[in-house]
Amino acid sequence: MDKLQELTEKLYNEGLSKGREEGEALLAKAKEEAGRTVEAAKAEAEKIVADAEKQAADLKAKVESDLRMAASQCLSAVKADIEAVVTAKLVDEPVGEALKDPGFLKSIIKSVAEKFSSEEPGDLSVVLPESLRKETEGFVKGELAKSLGRGIDASFSKDIEGGFRIGPKDGRYFISMSDETFAALIGEYLRPTTKKLLFG
């Protein structure tokens, strides 16, 4: 019986020892796998955080760039508006007044008509403001026609406040020399100077 008991104890101890070894091996393997899983999870988490930080930095850079561009465009638009207002104030009223002055208008009409006369055969047609009929009709039909040596048809329109239109009598085309046209032309020459004075 002692032998049986001894054998039983030996088998029990060997089984227990083997079970412990297998359990410890399984536990070690589980710890190793858990360690790898934790490392993989940490690496994945770090990658996610790094990607999120990069996306946030990219978004911040894009927003800052867009804001700088928008601010620059806004500033340019405001400067252009100020420049246009100042140029208009400097040009529109004086030009409008000058083109309502019969003497000044006659000299411009004569210069333009002479240029036409040298380049265009045939009679000319001039349309002037109705408000200046009395002061300009005789000049156009008399003095100007005589100095050019050709016929000039003068008509008058209430639609023209200042300036005039001129072209061949056959009506193929005409050139408008209105107060708006002159103001725009003079404004183009003044704009760079106005810009420099206003904004350096």
Textual characterization of the structure:
The protein is an alpha+beta fold and 200 residues long. It has a domain at 113-185: hypothetical protein PF0899 fold (2-Layer Sandwich), CATH 3.30.2320. The protein has 4 helices and 4 strands, in the order ααβαβββα. It has helices at 2-98, 102-119, 133-148, 179-199, and strands at residues 124-129, 152-157, 163-168, 175-178. Strands 2-1-3-4 form a 4-stranded mixed sheet. Strand 3 and strand 4 form a beta hairpin. Helix 1 (2-98) packs across helix 4 (179-199) and helix 2 (102-119) runs parallel beside helix 3. The protein is rod-shaped, with a radius of gyration of 47 Å.
Layout of helices and strands:
Blueprint: H1 2-98, H2 102-119, E1 124-129, H3 133-148, E2 152-157, E3 163-168, E4 175-178, H4 179-199
Could you list some keywords that capture this structure?
200 residues; alpha+beta; hypothetical protein PF0899 fold; four-stranded mixed beta sheet; 4 helices; 76% helix; rod-shaped
Mean pLDDT metric: 76
For the terminal residues, how far apart are their CA atoms? 117 Å
- Which runs of at least 5 residues are low in confidence (pLDDT < 50)? none
The CATH class of the domain at 113-185, by name, is: Alpha Beta
What string gives the helices and strands in order?
HHEHEEEH
Radius of gyration: 47 Å
Class from secondary-structure proportions = alpha+beta
The helix count comes to 4
From the 3D coordinates, which CATH architecture of the domain at 113-185 would you assign?
2-Layer Sandwich
The CATH topology of the domain at 113-185 is what? hypothetical protein PF0899 fold
The helix fraction, in percent, is over 70%
For the biggest sheet, the summary is:
4 strands, mixed
Task: Provide the β-strand percentage band.
Answer: 5-15%
Please state how the strands of the largest beta sheet are arranged side by side.
2-1-3-4
- Total count of strands: 4
Assign an overall shape. rod-shaped
